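Q: What structure does this chain adopt?
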Amino acid sequence: MKLDLKALFGGDTQRIAIEEQLDFHDLQYGSYCPLRQPVRVTGQAYASYLDLDLSFVFDGVCARCAEPIQKPMSLSLHKILVEDLQTREDADDEYVLVQDSALDLSDLLREELLLFFPTKMLCKPDCKGLCCTLRLPKGCGSQIGSPFAAAGLSDYFASRIIKEAIQMAVPKRKTSKARKNKRRSSVWKLNAPTLVKCPNCAGYTVPHKVCANCGYYNGKAVVSKDEA
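A:
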């Protein structure tokens, strides 16, 4: 629905009444569309202001117990209509930019409804989840144990549910031999040791170590040749 505001921005003081039934059946909320019934929109546009009242029924499921819920809801909006945003400070939630003196109410209300919906919709604030679905009198407390025992599931089916819920990370494709060898080339690469000449026997030995040929270190006999 497009609202013609040419006369309003031209200086006309007459108020524009709004009373419509808008369809938002394709509005996505999580994995389903909750607005199966039309949304009733009433309000008025005057001067540079837009006042709207929305009433609708939320048809969905509880995020904890997965029970179907139908909850009547309402939303009130107060917006300031402008034809141009001079600065970034004007880009506030209260301001609505109107282009070509026409305002598309469907796009505006679609965005406002998505912001209005809660992150999780519950059938009641103190919903106990699985216990609410099973209609347990005292919930799944210490007397019953786990939710699996409350649902009457055996250990076998409980383990199957846990295994299916926890997915292990696996590679997307097979590692080729070239990629495997390229990765291992840096791991198994050996470096030649640094060797120096022994000042006593002129044989090659590792620096800062006792010479394996004569047993001398720093000009002194540390290990006898027989012990070496």
